[in-house]
User: Which sequence fits this backbone?
């Protein structure tokens, strides 16, 4: 099954470096990557609360704690102040950071990488002593971690008797093979459903695998969230839409009870496009640690195409924290029109709108295009594909392209390293999937340059409509690693359709059984024609003085799609021809 993914940039909460990963049995490298944890801890709130349990491992494994090697292979949780055994193998990630942690006085670690080979299976528990939570009506578990993921299963579970366990956290959730979390990553989990008001509570960290990487944990904390705190987390609707919205759109928000008492009534307000505030009073029960979605009764008019804004805020009597009571959102409705200047630009920065972008994972390996802050052309971030094998598209948001204009796409690209040459092509589509491709903008080519190069391509459409630009990465006979940055699309001044047609190169018939013809009225001293198959191989190349019903014989080629590339004094024209048998 093909895997289609909508990119939600706002979910990229924690970003780090990215380096291409090779196979486990060769030289292993980590993919430090974006990580959205179950609930990212608010450090200011944590510091304002006095924990009723805290362990920083300053004296090693605490009395009463257990480190159990269930597999009996000699690999177990250990106390360390220096990190993994293979120091220097993963620079920046071979020890837990001392920033915002107590790692300088030691922490606990499971170092699966230390075996340097399989040991027939690993399974080890790190279990706390009994913790008294009887005086606490809500209980949060907080800890700092660093996890490098290969194929292990790293989990956190809670028990009230030490024998029956409830899993509350999977540390590898959302990570691809060879990914590593930011160093450190703060984890905050509401375990009230199990631990609240219990006399004995145990926390278990379990690592199950076999020659994987490592997991480091520190600053194990239990605390009670006190007081009243309504956290307005997000505006969930409406969102970006390539079709126009209505004059009666429902605005929906998500509210999290971040306090220790029930929320039973609140005022909620929105302001749409800077207009008049719309306030509603809501009576409902939101228990501590619960999330509540609220659709406003009053609708908003977002029927005009273009950018829109929403501000929402919540008011609760006795709210102890006002800094999380307001949320803002912006979205775009309808396709983007492309002006002559400055056009449409996207540098893949956190400030750029990526909500309308999407990816297609054609080889269904769960690894596709994402954002990275390593090797950007400008700014801090770029788009990248990094995988053992790749067959992946990155599709832009929608554009309104007209048949009376010519558009120019510019971009910057490079390979990640000498070991990751990657095939790259750019396409135009009527939807965000490969089955909707209408033309190839830039034919497939092997990218191996290690410095950014500028790229440019012309876009002409036969019919005015909504289109998407797709960036297609395909692995060759090696690993795939490609960077893309700073895309820009501009439109040429509008001209009549007749003059556009007069300057076009025509390839016909299409589809063809093997013989195609080329005509062009472009004023050019010469025409260099290439025909390229789906593998990127040039199957025909010839230089012409003019193109007037020039025939190309492709009857000996296999059925499929071919790119006809015509280079003349005015630029480059590419068209896709289907050969049928």
Assistant:
């Amino acid at each position: 099954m093909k895997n289609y993914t909508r990119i939600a940039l706002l979910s990229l909460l924690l970003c780090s470096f990215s380096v291409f990963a090779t196979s486990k049995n060769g030289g292993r490298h980590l993919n430090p990557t974006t990580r959205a944890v179950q609930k990212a801890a608010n450090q200011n709130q944590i510091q304002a609360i006095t924990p009723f349990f805290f362990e920083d491992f300053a004296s090693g494994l605490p009395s009463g704690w257990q480190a159990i090697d269930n597999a009996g292979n000699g690999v177990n949780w250990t106390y360390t102040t220096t990190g993994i055994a293979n120091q220097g193998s993963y620079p920046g990630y071979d020890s837990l950071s001392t920033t915002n942690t107590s790692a300088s006085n030691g922490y606990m670690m499971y170092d699966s990488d230390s075996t340097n080979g399989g040991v027939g299976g690993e399974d080890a528990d790190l279990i706390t002593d009994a913790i008294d939570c009887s005086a606490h009506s809500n209980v949060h578990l907080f800890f700092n971690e660093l996890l490098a993921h290969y194929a292990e299963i790293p989990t956190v579970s809670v028990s009230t008797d030490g024998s029956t366990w409830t899993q509350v956290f999977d540390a590898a959730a959302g990570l691809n093979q060879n990914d590593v979390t930011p160093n450190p990553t703060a984890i905050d989990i509401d375990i009230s459903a199990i631990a609240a008001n219990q006399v004995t509570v145990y926390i278990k960290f379990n690592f199950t695998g076999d020659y994987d990487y490592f997991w480091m944990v520190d600053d194990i904390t239990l605390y009670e969230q006190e007081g009243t705190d309504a956290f307005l987390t997000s505006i969930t609707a409406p969102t970006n839409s390539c079709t126009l919205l209505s004059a009666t759109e429902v605005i929906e928000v998500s509210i999290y009870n971040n306090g220790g008492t029930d929320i039973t009534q609140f005022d909620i307000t929105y302001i749409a496009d800077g207009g008049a505030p719309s306030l509603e009073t809501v009576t409902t029960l939101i228990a501590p640690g619960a999330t509540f979605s609220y659709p406003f009764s009053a609708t908003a008019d977002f029927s005009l195409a273009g950018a829109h804004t929403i501000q929402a805020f919540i008011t609760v009597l006795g709210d102890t924290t006002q800094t999380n009571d307001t949320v803002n959102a912006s979205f775009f409705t309808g396709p983007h029109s492309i002006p002559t200047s400055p056009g449409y630009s996207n540098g893949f920065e956190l400030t750029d709108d990526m909500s309308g972008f999407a990816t297609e994972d054609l080889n269904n390996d769960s690894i596709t295009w994402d954002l990275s802050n390593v090797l950007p052309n400008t700014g801090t971030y770029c788009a990248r594909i990094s995988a053992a094998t790749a067959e992946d598209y990155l599709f832009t948001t929608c554009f309104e392209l007209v048949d009376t204009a010519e558009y120019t796409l510019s971009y910057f690209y490079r390979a990640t390293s000498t070991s990751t040459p990657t095939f790259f092509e750019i396409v135009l589509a009527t939807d965000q999937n490969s089955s909707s491709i209408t033309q190839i903008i830039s034919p497939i080519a092997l990218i191996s340059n290690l410095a950014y190069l500028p790229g440019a391509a012309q876009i002409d459409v036969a019919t005015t409509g909504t289109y998407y630009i797709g960036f297609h990465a395909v692995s060759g006979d090696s690993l795939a690693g490609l960077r893309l940055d700073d895309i820009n699309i501009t439109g040429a001044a509008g001209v009549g359709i007749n003059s556009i047609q007069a300057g076009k190169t025509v390839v016909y018939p299409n589809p063809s059984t093997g013989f195609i013809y080329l005509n062009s009225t472009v004023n050019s001293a010469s025409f260099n024609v290439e025909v390229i198959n789906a593998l990127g191989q040039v199957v025909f190349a010839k230089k012409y003085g003019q193109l007037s019903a020039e025939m190309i014989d492709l009857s000996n080629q296999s059925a499929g799609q071919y790119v006809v590339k015509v280079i003349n004094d005015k630029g480059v024209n590419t068209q896709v021809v289907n050969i049928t048998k």
Summary: The CA atoms of residues 239 and 565 lie 39 Å apart. Helices lie at 43-47, 192-195, 497-502. The longest strand covers residues 480-491. Residues 230-334 form a domain with the Immunoglobulin-like fold (CATH 2.60.40.10).
